[in-house]
Amino acid sequence: MLLGVNIDHIAVLREARKINDPNPLDAVPICKLAGADQITIHLREDRRHIHDNDAKVIINQSALPVNLECSINEDIIDIACELKPARITLVPENREEVTTEGGLDIKSNYEKIQKVIKKLHKHEIEVSLFIDPNKEVIELSSKLNVEWIEIHTGTFANIYAMLNSGLANTHHTIKDLELPKTELKKRLQTSIKEIKKATKYAIKNDLKVAAGHGLNYQNVTLISDIEGISELNIGQSIIARSVFTGLHTAINDMQDLIKKA
Ligand code: PXP
After folding, report:
1. Interhelix angle 154-165/181-204, nearest 10 degrees
2. Residue 99: band (very low, low, confident or very high) from pLDDT cuts 50, 70, 90
3. Which pLDDT belongs to residue 167?
4. pTM
5. What's the gap in Å between 60 CA and the centre of ligand 1?
6. Once rounded to an integer, what is the mean pLDDT over residues 116-121?
7. Which is the closest atom of ligand 1 to the Cα of 91?
8. Which residues contact residue 111 at a Cβ distance below 8 angstroms, ignoring those fewer than 6 apart?
9. Domain count of the fold of the chain
10. For position 177, what pLDDT does the model report?
11. Is 194 left (phi over 0), alpha (psi -120 to 50) or beta?
12. Does residue 175 carry a pLDDT above 80?
């Protein structure tokens, strides 16, 4: 199983002071040395963390393949085509959100997404769609001829966190999850089953399967155990741990857990 390290939060720290320290580019060789397989960054429309120049230098200088997350906004797609990362992961984006809040709504945006995918393929960039574990959305993804899907694990991660610490580990649906433990346990099992089923179905439809969002040192093995998932993209928990242990150790710790699965 491959590990993509999302380094956006290094830029978040830099933006706290609006200076050039820490520089997310400096994380790239450390990720490589620690055994990560991919660098993931998100060029948001509001540029709240990664800036155009970060994306440019990281894509040009990284010895690891770069997975650039972006919305289907035309200006962002034009920039992405010019930067030519190894992969683009299309994600939904909303200005008010703290982080990505769910999978792409492919059904409502089918034509626009199709146009974007054709353009990216013309630029020889492989495409991944960040989606919820849902059969209909997988069928639409397959029809769109993408190489990858990335299953949104945020709901799973929230249920896991509510069950084990009483606090959601991402930002949304907190109220919905204030449930008795027996109900949370049931929901956790349902959520894992949905991810397993979606993975199987995606593979049957010739899609490669990644997963990500809200994965951490406590919950990751429940996902890395799932047969068929070939890549995890993890940001927040690795960067958070790296504040105390250094990035190399934080990545090694995560890799150890993934390899144990
Ligand atoms: N995958 C996608 C598509 C994302 O948008 C994000 C968050 O930027 C992640 C993975 C990583 O999520 P986290 O930071 O919660 O590990």
Report:
1. 160
2. low
3. 67
4. 0.95
5. 22
6. 98
7. 3
8. none
9. 1
10. 65
11. alpha
12. no
Question: Phi-psi bin for 6: left (phi > 0), alpha (psi -120 to 50), beta?
Answer: beta
Catalytic residues, by residue number, are: 42, 69, 213
Which CATH number goes with the domain that contains 41? 3.20.20.70
The answer to whether 38 touches 4, Cβ cutoff 8 Å, is yes
Cα angle vertex 215, ends 48, 168, to 5°?
80
Residue 238 CA, closest ligand 1 atom number? 16
Question: Coil, strand, or helix at residue 84?
Answer: coil
Torsion from C-alpha of 203, 64, 157, 80, nearest 10 degrees: -80
Binding pocket residue ranges, ligand 1, CB within 6 Å: 6, 8, 42, 69, 89, 91, 99-100, 130, 150, 212-215, 233-237
Distance CA 128, CA 42 (A): 13
* Residue 55: domain span: 2-260
